[in-house]
Design goal:
Layout lengths: L1 E4 L19 E3 L3 E3 L4 H4 L2 H6 L2 E3 L5 H4 L2 H8 L7 E6 H10 L20 E6 L4 E4 L2 E7 L7 E6 L4 E4 L8 H8 L5 E5 L7 H7 L4 H8 L8 E5 L6 H10 L5 E3 L5 E3 L1
Parallel strand pairs: 3-4, 4-5, 5-6, 10-11, 11-12, 12-13
Antiparallel strand pairs: 1-2, 1-14, 2-3, 7-8, 8-9, 9-10
Length: 258
C-alpha cells in the first residue's frame, strides 16, 4: 500500500514544503482520504484515476478544493466522483458547500455521459469499499462529526485517526485487526497549548504518547500528521523527545510504502 500526503504549498525551488495547511492523502494513486489539497496536489496520472474521495469530516482544511477538483473534471468524466462520508457529513457538504451559492450543486449535474458527483454515505462501524480498498469508519473525538478509518488492500492494513483528541473506540477497532502495518495519527499543537488542543479536539505530542499506550500492535510505522504550520519545528522536537520507536512527522509529497 502506498500513501502520500498531498502538498498544499511549494517552496521557491518548486518542491513540496513541510508546512501543511490542507489535508488530503492519496492511497495507491486511486483513492483520496479528505480533499483539502486534492485539486492542487494530484499528479496528472492521479487526477485521471481518483474517483473516490473519503471525507472524514467537513472542516474546510479537509474539503477546501474538492469543489474545484470536480469542476476541473466536469467535461471529461466518464463516471461520477464519489464522495464517501457519513450521511450527516454528506448532508452538511450539500447544504454548506455544494449549495448553489458557495459552489454549484454538482450532485445534481450531468455532463451528457455521467452524473458529475454523487454522495455515497457509509455507516460508522460497517465496512465499505472504495476502489480496491476496504474501509471501516469509527467515530473519534473532534468538535464536529468525525471518523477515523482503518483501511486495507487485503495484504496491508493502516489506521488513520483523522482529527481527534483522546478517544477509545478507534483503538479498539485497530487492536482487533490481526496486523497493523502503519498508523497515521494527528499531533496538531505543542504541549504548551494543551488546553487549546483539548478545547478544539486535537492532540499534543504528550497526548499522542498517552494515546499510543492504548495500541496493542507493536513494530509499526507511526506517522504524525496535521501539524499546525506555525508550530511544526517545535512539534517535531516534542515528538522526537517521546522516544517512541518508528514515530516521525509525516512529510508532504513523500510516498510511503508498506
Amino acid at each position: 500500500m502506498k500513501i502520500k500526503l498531498l502538498p498544499s504549498t511549494i517552496d521557491a525551488e518548486g518542491r513540496a514544503s513541510p508546512e501543511q495547511r490542507l489535508s488530503c492523502f492519496v492511497v495507491d494513486g486511486r483513492v483520496c482520504i479528505d480533499a483539502g489539497s486534492i485539486a492542487i496536489g494530484l499528479s496528472e496520472e492521479e487526477r485521471a484515476a481518483v474517483r473516490d474521495v473519503v471525507v472524514t469530516h467537513p472542516h474546510m482544511d479537509h474539503v477546501a478544493t474538492l469543489p474545484i477538483f470536480v469542476d476541473d473534471l466536469f467535461g471529461s468524466l466518464e463516471e461520477p466522483v464519489r464522495v464517501r462520508a457519513t450521511r450527516e457529513v454528506c448532508e452538511i457538504l450539500a447544504r454548506d458547500v455544494f449549495n448553489g451559492t458557495v459552489y454549484p450543486p454538482f450532485q445534481n449535474f450531468h455532463n451528457g455521459r455521467t452524473r458529475v458527483m454523487e454522495f455515497v454515505p457509509f455507516r460508522e462501524g460497517e465496512e465499505f469499499r472504495a476502489a480496491h480498498l476496504t474501509f471501516r469508519a469509527v467515530a473519534v473525538s473532534h468538535i464536529v462529526p468525525t471518523v477515523g478509518l482503518v483501511l486495507t488492500d487485503g495484504e496491508r492494513t493502516v489506521g488513520f485517526s483523522s482529527d481527534t483528541s483522546a478517544t477509545d473506540e478507534f483503538w479498539r477497532v485497530c487492536n482487533r485487526e490481526p496486523r497493523l502495518d502503519a498508523l497515521l495519527i494527528e499531533a496538531s499543537f505543542p504541549d504548551a497549548l494543551a488546553e487549546l488542543a483539548e478545547t478544539s479536539g486535537h492532540l499534543t505530542p504528550s497526548a499522542l504518547g498517552r494515546e499510543l499506550r492504548k495500541l496493542a500492535h507493536k513494530d509499526l510505522d507511526i506517522l504524525a500528521m496535521h501539524l499546525k504550520p506555525s508550530f511544526r519545528n517545535r512539534l517535531v522536537e516534542e515528538l522526537e523527545a517521546l522516544g517512541v520507536p518508528r514515530l516521525s512527522a509525516m512529510e508532504p509529497g513523500r510516498e510511503y510504502v508498506w
